[in-house]
Amino acid sequence: MKRTILWIGALVVGAVLGLLGLHWLDQLMEFIAIIYTRLFQLLAVPTIMLAVISTFATFGSQGSGRIFGRTLTFTLLTTLAAAVVGAVLYLIIAPSSLPQLGEANVVEMLPEEAQELLPQSDKPGWMMHILRVIPNNVVKPILEGNVLSLLLLAFAIGIGISKLPDSDRKEIVVKGLLGLQDLLFLLIRWLIWTLPLGIVAFSAQLSAQVSAGVVAGSLGKYVLVVLGGNVLQFFVVLPLFLLARGLNPLHVLSRMMPAVLMALFTKSSAATLPVTMESAEQRLGVRPSVARFVLPICTTINMNGCAAFILITSLFVMQQGGMPITTGTILLWTLISVVSAVGNAGVPMGCYFLTLSLMSGIGAPVALMGLILPIYTIIDMVETAVNVWSDSCVCAMVDAHPHPRRPS
Predict the structure, then answer these.
(1) 307 CB burial (10 A radius; 0-12, 13-18, 19+)
(2) How far apart are CA 21 and CA 283, in angstroms?
C-alpha cells in the first residue's frame, strides 16, 4: 500500500513539474528518463531469456506423464484464449493514440534489425518474415535485442535441457540458470526501489508534451480493455472450458472462492498456493495426487491474466510510438504474449516488468509504462485472481479426465 501511494505521488509530482514549462527542468527529466530507459533495455534480454529458459528447463523434473501433458495442454489453451479475448477487445474499444507521441515516427528511429521485427505491408511475405526471426548464430539476437529470435532460442534451450537425462551435469546447468536468475532478481529489485524517480521523470516528460485530458481518456480505454478482458476470461471463457469437460462452473467457483479471494488481496499466486490446494482437496474434492502435482505447476506456468496484459499493453505502447498495428502484428504478439506468460514465473512485478522488457527490446516508447505503473497495482489484483481461478479450473479439468466429475 505504501509503495502504491508513493508511485501515485511520483506520478502527480512529475505531471506538475512537466506543466511548469521550465526548459532546464524538462531537459533534466528527459535525461533521467533516458537513464531509466537504458537500464530497462540492459535488463530486457536477460529477463526474457532466463525467465523462459528456467521455466521450460524445469519441466523435466516436473514429470512427463499424462497428467503433466493434460496440465500443459489446458494451460496453453486457456492462456491463448485469454490473449485472443484481449486482442478482440482491443480492436473493439480501440484506445486512442496520444497526440505528438502517436505522430512521432519511432519506427524510423529504430535499428534496421528492430524494424524487421515489425510486420509491414511493404515488406516481403511471411516467408521472409519467418527467415528474419530464425537466427543464424547465437550472439546476434542477444546483441540486437531481437525479441522473437530470443524467445525462439529460449524456448528451444529450455525444452532441450528438460529432455536431457538426469545427471550431475544437467543439475549443474539448471542450478546455474537459477543462480543467474536470482542475481537478475536482485538487480531488478534494486531498480524497482528507485522507480519513483523514474516515474517522476516519465510523467514530467509526457505532461510537458500531451494534454492531461487526452492522456486520461486514452489510458481509461486501455484500462477498460485490460480489466474487461480479465472479466470475460473469469466469467465467460473459463466457465466454458469447465462446461466442455462436463463440470459445473458455479460449483467449482463456490468451492474455490477462498483461494480466489485470497489471490485478489495478496496479488501472489505462490502465496495463495496452500489455500488453493486445501480448497481443491477438501472443498472441491480433487484427488490429492492430482491437486499436489497440478497446482504447483499451474502456479508456475498458468498465467491467463498475464498473457492478456502483455498483449494489450504491448499493442497500446507500440501504437503510441507510431508503430503499425496490423493483423499480422496482433497475431505475432498474441504468440509472444502466450510464450512470455508461460515463462514469466518468479519475475518480481511479474507481467509488468516482462512487458516493459519486451517493449525495451523493440525500442517502443517505454515512458508510457511509467504512467501505467500506478494503475498496475489494481490490474495486478484482478490478474492474480484470474490466474488462481484458471489454476483451479485446470486442476478440476485434469481431475475429471477421463470420466468427468459431476456434482450431485
Answers:
(1) buried
(2) 60
Contact between 152 and 135 (Cβ < 8 Å): yes
Q: Which of 266, 293, 267, 264 is nearest to 280 (CA)?
A: 293
Say if residues 320 and 106 touch (Cβ distance below 8 Å). no
**Residue 118, exposed/middle/buried by CB under 10 A (0-12, 13-18, 19+)?**
buried
Which candidate, 336, 364, 328, 360, places its Cα nearest to that of 122? 328
DSSP string, 25-39: HHHHHHHHHHHHHHH
Measured CA to CA, the distance from residue 37 to residue 49 in angstroms comes to 19
Burial of 213-239, coded b for 16+ CB within 10 Å and e otherwise, reads eebeebbebbbebbbbbbebbbeebbb
| Phi and psi, residue 103, nearest 5° | -80, -25
> What 8-state DSSP symbol labels residue 96?
P
Question: Could you please report the per-residue DSSP string of 382-407?
Answer: HHHHHHHHHHHHHHHHHHHSSS----
Here the cell at position 300 is: 508456475
Q: Helix count (H) and strand count (E) of the chain?
A: 20, 0
C-alpha–C-alpha distance, residues 25 and 15, integer Å: 12
Cell numbers 505504501: residue:
2
Indicate the length of the chain as a whole number: 408
Q: Which residues of the chain, if any, have pLDDT below 70?
A: 1, 3-4, 41, 44, 59-65, 98-133, 144-148, 206, 208-217, 344-350, 361, 401-408
Give the contacts of 188 (CB within 8 A, at least 6 positions apart): 43, 47, 347, 348, 349, 353
Computed on alpha carbons and rounded to an integer, the radius of gyration of the chain in Å comes to 21
> How high is the pLDDT of residue 225?
94
pLDDT of residue 4: 65
What is the pLDDT, as a whole number, of residue 349?
Answer: 66
Residue 373 identity: L
Q: Which pLDDT score is estimated for 247? A: 94
For residue 180, give the C-alpha cell. Answer: 543467474
* pLDDT for the residue numbered 407: 45
**What whole-number distance in Å separates Cα of residue 137 and Cα of residue 326?**
29
Q: What is the pLDDT of residue 284?
A: 93
CA nearest neighbour of 200 among 355, 4, 30, 380: 30
